[in-house]
Specification:
The structure holds 2 protein chains of 2 kinds. Chain A contains 18 helices and 26 strands. Chain A is α/β, with parallel strands linked by helices. Classes of the chains: A alpha/beta, B alpha/beta.
Chain lengths: ~550, ~450
């Protein structure tokens, strides 16, 4: 017997289908939205409630080796925020880096039904898939770190663009990734090989390879375009957190040459001013470029005051932060593939740079002309926990609240931004775009982020509340794959969720090129590197659209 | 530890070759084994590339004629064993699980689920090996690297408080000393190897420099090195205190500061002697300090095949790496309170499930005495002191030889196993899943054990 559900009389926000608060019914059968259901379908009366597609986090760090190192690093943080089990859900611990079960449940309690882990070294992807299998309710995928990959650099050095593209596809397939991630391109070799140095310019030569970060990024963007990956290269630009890094960010966006590229946590890359001096906001220049160039999508990486954790494949950045606080610090080098740095961190209203970053993120949101391309994230946990999203939504929707908040932060920093002049208030429809429809479109997830016939029945139902933080903090119902997981704010069942991945086509011959490199420079056997399908459990392959 | 077999077992004609199989004996988790399997005799007759320990591991895991389940010493079916185990766990007020470092992550995940379900206590052999390093990590962090990075780049390799030649024989040859790497074209010739220990061991000949420290004085020596790296004064009588001269210390400091990529591997000579987590913390801090001058990493040399996986699984499910208690319906961590040896020695646990380890042979007397008094469920591939005192004992298949699954190398790199031949015995995972289902069923009639 099919499982059927009808949600009646809800106010529906479904921007992909141009529905902006109309009162309608929604029909669900076997996990999908359908035209109609039988009279015996169970019903949810959503009268007076707001109905949206389940939200999608396009950029967060929730699973894998670096996340687990951060979990282990911060017992003091778990202790203060326990996550008791219920009759239907597992226990865990919270804090800035929650345990896997707590992560899945907490995303669900805010109406999120999909989240993408943004940085995975391929050799550790097995670990990520194991953790994601223990991350309940939500669907999830990950971006594989290839931007500092020694073998791919070798191919670029030799000018072998075709093999470069094939090898990227081989890697995405071998580890079941969703798309490719580039982090501080070119920096790993200097970090590991030149006593903790860093790349400072996208046109600088990378040691041993005679190529530049700009060339590497261009090549990835071109290859991903040809492979037709559902989401373009997800780029963490060079010089994160350095004053004046807007020129690097602009150079990077220009390197896309009109092709699709996603700029991750762009707030961290919007610093004006001069290197080694106090930064000022460069948000206007960045957002104007994004507004004018439709090939670019971005997530903001908003900073929220309070506990955070720098957790990044950008090892030199974490080292820079370590030398501010001299607190506990993790560095983890991954052979031939990546670096990693982790630092517990707290954003404080009184600190100039922290306030500046908070304001820059809001400026980016408020000056964005296309909500479809400037998406909500805190780069969890780097800018703050994903648990801050409801508060962030209130900051965007409620200018009075924002003005009040402005009173309590560093005024010198605010003076270097245009935030006080920005009166804009996001509408519910725009919130639905930056948290649902926009991320789905940027990710190429055709069955998510909307409520049209055929879409996945991932749905959130909120009790309307003028206090938008309160409203988005506790949906009345969360429906995943057509199954009500949360009813009247309480979990009524557990749910697994599935892995989202892509399988770009490639010529098998490339593995013959990669294998000898492995035997020389890796510490695992080539034949043990690719990950079997057993690790995928429930999964969905998102189709590619190759250009050939 | 098994004794190395001197001669290879005899072979029949029904042979199979398994390439790139993984040895799970120690934390090196070498995945380049070429196993010759005699399918008639159900045993491995040749293990190419294996070290002396690996050969013993592969040759000696044959199919023994043992009952799959014994309850109170009497043969029973698998179902009866799982029923009895579930009942014991559900009836207990303070059930504990311990071990887990010699089974794959898939089994470890189920073990945590069971303890979460019954508000039990979960702990792994980490608490008696590198637990102190885990605690030090929580305090100061760690600069670390995968072993391939060491192979490719490390020109200064320091071993402290360990004897890899006997405990991890291929650590030198496959990962850290002799292999040629991307920026180490001549292998050992391009590296300087330093060994620091309280006595000479079979590992000593590998070292270019051997530094002998007085027993129990590792912390003092580490702290003096930290001071010298930072250009601070140290006490005049350092040699008297530690047995190491100022001259040797100065030389060591220069080498550490001037290398291109340095690594410090620490063994249980640091974690299980005076100082414990202070020693590990000093190693991590020294490595972190050295990054102000060069690139430097540190790494515990982990013992059991999948103890690193156990740390990872327990951490991702609970937030803490070992010594976790669910009594209140959520995980709490407190080494000394929730570590198994302590829980037993205080006589607190009233039932124990021991997976793939033998605490009855190596815990403190008081802890073993308590283990003898309470109902014990055990899963192991061989008979051990622990299985012999168990009320319910399961004979299980050997991971990596009879079963697949995931193990984590000492550097957190996950590897999938390639089983060599089938076993009539169930896997740890199958037994644990059976117990887990039964526990949940038994509890479903009752009020769920949630926080008060």
């Amino acid at each position: 017997m099919p499982s059927e559900l009808k949600i009646v009389n809800g106010r529906i926000y479904d921007p992909e289908n141009n529905i902006d608060g109309d009162v309608r019914n929604l029909c669900i059968r076997d996990g999908k939205i359908v035209d109609s259901v039988s009279k015996t379908a169970s019903r949810i009366n959503a009268h007076g409630m707001v109905v949206m597609p389940g939200a999608i986090d396009i950029h967060c760090h929730i699973a894998g080796p670096k996340v687990n190192l951060a979990r282990k690093l911060m017992p003091e943080d778990h202790r203060l925020d326990v996550h008791p089990k219920t009759k239907v859900t597992r226990s865990g611990t919270g804090g800035i880096v929650p345990s896997t079960f707590a992560t899945g449940y907490r995303y669900a309690t805010m109406g999120y039904t999909t989240a993408m882990e943004a940085a995975v070294p391929p050799i550790t992807a097995r670990h990520v898939l194991e953790e994601l299998d223990d991350t309940p309710v939500i669907d999830k995928g990950f971006y594989v770190l290839l931007g500092n990959n020694a073998f791919l650099y070798k191919l670029l050095k030799e000018g072998r663009k075709k093999e470069f593209k094939e090898a990227i596809a081989w890697w995405v397939n071998s580890v079941h990734a969703y798309t490719v991630k580039l982090v501080n391109t070119g920096s790993d070799e200097l970090w590991k090989g030149r006593k903790n140095a860093n790349i400072t310019d996208v046109n600088e030569q990378i040691d041993h390879y005679n190529i530049t970060p700009a060339h590497v990024m261009e090549s990835f963007i071109e290859a991903a375009h040809e492979l037709g990956l559902p989401h373009p290269p997800h780029i963490h630009c060079n010089n994160l957190g350095h004053s004046g890094n807007i020129s690097t960010t602009l150079d990077t966006m220009k390197a896309a040459q009109g092709r699709r590229a996603h700029m991750a946590h762009v707030q961290f890359h919007s610093f004006g001013g001069e290197l080694n001096k106090n930064p000022v906001s460069g948000a206007r220049e960045i957002i104007e470029y994004i507004n004018d160039n439709e090939n670019i999508t971005a997530d903001v990486g908003q900073v929220m005051f309070g506990q955070a954790a720098a957790m990044t494949a950008d090892a030199p950045l974490a080292w820079m932060l370590r030398n501010v606080k001299f607190d506990k610090w993790v560095n983890a080098d991954t052979e031939c593939e990546s670096g990693c740095g982790i630092i517990p961190f707290t954003y404080q209203e009184s600190v100039y740079t922290h306030t500046l970053q908070w304001a820059m993120g809001l400026e980016l949101f408020l000056m964005s002309k296309d909500p479809w391309r400037v998406l909500l994230s805190t780069d969890h946990p780097n800018g703050g926990s994903f648990m801050n999203y409801p508060k962030l939504i209130k900051l965007l929707m409620d200018s009075a609240y924002r003005k009040e908040a402005l009173q309590h932060v560093n005024q010198k920093a605010i003076a270097n931004t245009s935030l006080p002049e920005l009166e804009r208030e996001y509408t519910l429809n725009e919130i639905a775009i930056i948290t649902r429809a926009g991320p789905a479109r940027a990710l190429g997830l055709k069955n998510k982020g909307h409520l049209g016939v055929g879409a996945d029945a991932d749905i959130t139902i909120y009790t309307e509340d003028e206090d938008r933080e309160q409203m988005f903090n506790a949906p009345r119902y969360v429906i995943k794959d057509g199954i009500p997981v949360i009813k009247d704010h309480e979990f009524v069942t557990d749910h697994k969720g599935k892995i989202l991945h892509s399988k770009p086509g490639y010529n098998e011959d490339i593995s013959g090129e990669i294998e000898p490199f492995f035997e020389d420079y890796y510490s695992v056997k080539f034949s043990n590197y690719a990950i079997s399908d057993d690790y995928l459990h429930d999964h969905e392959e998102i189709p590619t659209n190759p250009k050939s | 530890m098994p004794q190395a077999s001197k001669t290879r077992p005899k072979e029949s004609k029904n042979l199979k070759i398994v390439k790139d199989a993984t040895c799970t004996f120690c934390g090196c988790v070498c995945d380049d084994m070429e196993l010759t399997v005699d399918l008639d005799e159900h045993r491995i007759t040749k293990a190419k590339n294996a070290c002396v320990l690996g050969r013993a591991w592969f040759y000696e895991h044959t199919l023994e004629d043992r009952p799959v389940v014994l309850i109170d010493g009497k043969e029973a079916t698998l179902e009866e064993g799982m029923d009895e185990a579930a009942q014991i766990l559900v009836d207990a007020k303070f059930p504990i699980t311990y071990g887990l470092s010699d089974c794959p992550c898939e089994a470890q995940r189920v073990a945590v689920d069971i303890m979460d379900t019954i508000n039990g206590n979960i702990d792994t052999t980490t608490s008696v090996c590198h637990g102190p390093s885990g605690m030090a990590f929580q305090g100061v962090g760690e600069s670390t690297a995968t072993l391939g990075e060491i192979k490719n780049r490390a020109d200064l390799v320091i071993y402290w408080g360990g004897n890899p030649a006997e405990s991890h024989p291929r650590h030198f040859t496959r990962y850290a000393v002799t292999p040629k790497g991307m920026f180490i074209p001549n292998g050992k010739k391009d590296r300087t190897v330093v060994l620091i220990d309280v006595r000479k061991t079979p590992s000593t000949p590998v070292a270019d420099i051997f530094v002998q420290v007085k027993p129990g004085k590792d912390f003092e020596l580490l702290w003096a090195l930290r001071a010298l790296v930072k250009g601070k004064k140290i006490s005049e009588d350092i040699e008297e205190q530690t047995g190491v001269s100022r001259e040797i210390l100065d030389d060591l400091v220069q080498r550490m500061k001037n290398c291109q990529f340095g690594v410090l591997f620490m063994g249980m000579g640091l974690t299980m002697t005076r100082g414990r987590h202070f020693n590990s913390g000093a190693v991590y801090s020294l490595a972190a300090d050295l990054n102000e001058f060069t690139h430097f990493v540190a790494k515990p040399v982990r013992g059991h095949g999948n103890v690193t996986g156990a740390d990872n699984v327990v951490a991702w499910q609970t937030g803490y790496p070992f010594g976790v208690n669910f009594n209140r319906g959520y995980p709490r961590f407190n080494p000394g309170e929730f570590t198994t040896s302590d829980v037993l020695a205080r006589g607190e646990a009233d039932a124990a499930m021991i997976v793939a380890s033998d605490p009855a042979s190596n815990f403190a007397k008081k802890a073993i005495a308590h283990l003898e008094k309470i109902p014990v469920i055990s899963m192991d591939v061989k008979e051990t002191h622990t299985t012999r005192l168990s009320r319910v004992r399961f004979a299980v298949a050997t991971y990596g030889i009879n079963t697949g699954g995931t193990v984590y190398r000492m550097d957190d790199v996950p590897i999938s196993l390639r089983p060599a031949f089938d076993s009539p015995f169930p896997t740890d995972q199958e037994v644990l899943e059976g117990i887990c289902q039964r526990v949940k069923k038994l509890l479903s009639g009752k009020k769920a054990r949630v926080a008060a």
